[in-house]
Amino acid sequence: MRVSLQLFSIVLVTVALTPPLAHALELPGKRRLTQDVYVTVQKMYYPGFTLAGIAEPVAILSTLLLLLVTPFDTTPFWSTLFALLCLAGMHTIYWRVTHPLNRAWLEGERLSKSGQRFFAAGQGSKHAAPGDGADWTALRDRWERSHVNRAILAALALVALLIALSPIETK
Questions:
Q1: In angstroms, rounded to a whole number, what is the distance separating the alpha carbons of residues 171 and 160?
Q2: Nearest CA to 83 among 144, 17, 37, 143?
Q3: Per-residue pLDDT averaged across 19-25, rounded?
Q4: Total Cβ atoms within 10 A of residue 44
Q5: What is the reported pTM?
Q6: How far apart are CA 104 and CA 118, in angstroms?
């Protein structure tokens, strides 16, 4: 069961890594866009990237389950714990930085009912948004940096889970 859970977690983390890595790779080109073009381009990511986003919370749950069935004080245990912490950090960055800006970029867009519910989540967070007099390049850079940081954390989680595939040592 542990090996199956490891493989399932690895697949989920790989899927969760894909959107932030894609954003990180397109960063140099997007920095050349004007504000109007940038905001227009931002809207094309939905719903496709939103669908891949479901892998992230499921990867956290799967990795937590994996941690619970991994013998304590072994390399796989500590590696899995590290992966879980990276995934939690990745998810925290999404909700604290990326999500409020996603909401701002999508303002005025027609979304499905599920999309409306999802992007309405966290309405209480107080982040500057375009139109609030905030410098759009600072908002763009914050959004883009959030994805670079999320990609790094997801990549670290993936490597940690691959390390955890090593056999359990016996003492």
A1: 22
A2: 17
A3: 94
A4: 8
A5: 0.89
A6: 13
